[in-house]
Amino acid sequence: MTKDELIRLMADKRYLSLKESKDVVESIFIAISNALENGEKVKISGFGTFNVKKRAAFKGRHPKTGETLDIPESIQPVFEPSKKLKEKVNKSNATR
Known about the structure:
The protein is built from three helices and five strands; from the N terminus they run H-H-E-E-E-E-E-H. By secondary structure, the chain is α+β, with helices and mostly antiparallel strands.
């Protein structure tokens, strides 16, 4: 599902205009992004937790040349699904 599809789905389900739906979706993404940028955790009950995690520096390899590269440490956004979401996904995919 793309962001545009999410906006259209929300507009249809909640009887909002596309502009109103887009504003709501954008506001949610901005709020989550800002919280992560500030090092805060975003917990959405029944869905999961967005957080940031420090990734240590490591040695990598250029895939074409095989040259060894020093990859610097970085901070990565991560998502951990809730138990409820994991169960729902597993249950729906059990028949596939």
